Amino acid sequence: MDVSQKVLSPEDLSKLEQLGNPTVLEITERYLELLKPRKVTVITDDPADIRYVRRLAIENGEERKLAMEGHTIHYDSYHDQARDKQNTRVLVTPGMKMSRVINTIPREQGLEEVLEIMDGVMAGREALVRFFSLGPLDSRFAIPAFQITDSAYVAHSEDILYRTGYEQFKKLKGSPDFFTFIHSAGQLDERNNTRNIDKRRIYIDVVGNQVLTVNNQYAGNSLGLKKLALRLAIYRANHEDWLAEHMFLMAARPEGKNRLTYFCGAFPSACGKTSTAMIPGQLILGDDIAYIRSGPGGRAYGVNIEQGIFGIIMDVNPVDDPVIYEALTTPRELIFSNVLIHEDRAYWLGMGGDLPQEGANHFSDCWEAGQKDETGNLVDPCHKNARYTIRISELENADPRLHDPEGVPIEGVIYGGRDSDTSVPVYQSLDWVHGVAIGATLESETTFATLGKGGVRAFSPMANMDFLVVPLGRYIKNHIDFGARLKRTPLVFATNYFLKSEGRFLNEKVDKKVWLMWMEGRIHGEYGTVETPIGYIPEYEDLRSLFRRIFDREYSPGDYEAQFAIRIDKFIEKIERMEQIYAEEQDVPEEFSGCLKTLKQRLSEARRRYGSGVVSPAAFAG
Ligand code: SPV
Ligand code: MN
């Protein structure tokens, strides 16, 4: 331990040694020698250590205190405001197969490149050594995570978002079975933002169970435990027998019925994922990443590997997101990132009311309305991907089973997309394989209407496309096989909150609560269905009484007709788009291709029988 002895105090060194884990010592020594920090601090689960990190983020200028007690602001570089897909690469060894859309680089070459960038990158800086648990403590779901970072903001965010795991590492009894994350924000500018964005690299080493990431601060690039760990977990899950998913977990709690029904759900960005997990009156367990395994009774169980939310702040307002809005505007520990700060208060797009015309933001400490960036683009008051970082336990609708090591029994899976013209607001799949097919054909329409790109459909199976470090065919097969092994398979549903007619949404934002309650009732055998070529849709009378009970609103036969008409031609077009995409993939499971074929046959038959591209739900009833 030559290097470690030089940069670690005897107390810090002893904290490492007490873990009794030679791999932790070896990795620490190796990376400290490379990164060359001035000082290294080892953080345990002790609240005094955790407070140290929080204080350091303020002292080193990565965060600044705001007027409200516990609130801080952090800025990422103007050019580091979202996940960097281009510079995120998976290190591959000869013969290793990946999904087609994933950037790869030969392992030796990638390691050489990133290790060179990392050589001496922490000179003059303090490194923090951290231990976390991806998942509840003492749980068979959990994966221990080891992090070295020179960003106190990253370490502080991880304290809010993840469970600390120093004691968990002791329980490893020396085993090398954990994920490792090495991060450096690199050289910082006068705003404490990453300077060398051109040398930003995020290299995923599935063979070494490690991720090396450098010259970034945006959490989706920097935080080891978020999307970097998701990729390692997807690789592992798909070589074992479980699922690592980009999914929320929530409990539906129907009024007057003494029960909780757990759902997981995958929605591509901006399709209503967090708002579904946060439907008023229900309980949230997680909003981003779930590990799912089979458990007692042959059922699927899930855990949130996080304990916090790194949420998009745009449009969080008292009407649409009352619970989050309240949490963001009252004293508690939370980090705002990339919002507008005026007189030590946070402002963001869509919060309701006018925004100040000047302040500090992701571009400048003295932004004012009309300011342009170096390429002549007008700088928004606040970035569209500006976020908040908060613990779920701070929310009044937090599920008490968040930390249950056994997980929660999943009875329903929801796949949601943004789709203006094809699918109905809610339907149930014909069976598990069809449910997998619904997830595997998820699309979302882009919303950049002003750039003339509105309605472009982005394909993202299970909303997991960006993180698929295995071939798509293998991923889908893992899903199919997972369900086949269960004794009680969850029901699978599709939702679409964005159906339009003549440019107008056919539903109100709050209607998702009705769809949720219908799905919940289906799980308990309470509602009938109409079998259509695409799957089972609700019966009119059930929706009518749900709308009346929940919103005291009249739901007319005309509403039902407009929303639940089966758009046969549009569905056939969608299936054909999918057949084209999957034709390019290898080892696509036959069950899946067969399912698409059957769906197309069912649709074509209905087309023939009813002689129309759009068929009323009434045609399929009775
Ligand atoms: C997402 O983009 O899906 C997020 C935020 O949850 S990030 O951390 O950037 O992945
Ligand atoms: Mn996400």
Description:
The protein is of the alpha+beta class and 622 residues long. It folds into 3 domains: 2-62 and 84-237, Phosphoenolpyruvate Carboxykinase, domain 1 (3-Layer(aba) Sandwich); 245-306 and 402-621, Phosphoenolpyruvate Carboxykinase, domain 3 (Alpha-Beta Complex), CATH 3.90.228.20; 310-394, Phosphoenolpyruvate Carboxykinase, domain 2. It contains 18 helices and 35 strands. Strand 16 (290-295) and strand 17 form a beta hairpin. It is globular and about 80 Å long. The structure holds sulfopyruvate (SPV) and manganese (II) ion. Residues 83, 219-220, 226-227, 269, 288, 310 line the site of sulfopyruvate.
Secondary-structure-based class equals alpha+beta
Question: CA-to-CA gap between the ends?
Answer: 76 Å
Q: Which whole number gives the mean pLDDT? A: 96
Task: Work out the oligomeric state of the chains in this entry.
Answer: single chain
* Biggest sheet details: 9 strands, mixed
Number of domains: 3
Tally of helical runs: 18
The helical percent reads: 25-40%
CATH fold category name of the largest domain: Phosphoenolpyruvate Carboxykinase, domain 3
Question: Which features characterize this protein?
Answer:
622 residues; alpha+beta; Phosphoenolpyruvate Carboxykinase, domain 1; Phosphoenolpyruvate Carboxykinase, domain 2; nine-stranded mixed β-sheet; 18 helices; 35 strands; globular; binds sulfopyruvate; binds manganese (II) ion
